[in-house]
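pls design
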């Protein structure tokens, strides 16, 4: 049981870290081929798509259920 909890917490930390780093990861603009490093542009692109998937991975659904 302890190993299972450690594994779950480790995975959760990885997903939350990825979620936070999503706002800082540079990307290549599809039209120009230029690397975009501006935090505002990165955040706009991230929120439009990947943010929602990453947010779902960070929600602890097991804590929201009443089955214990």
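designed seq:
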């Amino acid at each position: 049981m302890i190993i299972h909890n450690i594994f779950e917490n480790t995975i959760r930390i990885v997903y939350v870290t990825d979620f936070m780093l999503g706002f800082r990861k540079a990307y290549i603009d599809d039209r120009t081929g230029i690397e975009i490093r501006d935090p505002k542009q990165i955040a706009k692109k991230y929120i439009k798509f990947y943010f929602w998937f990453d947010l779902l991975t960070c929600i602890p659904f097991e804590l929201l259920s009443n089955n214990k």
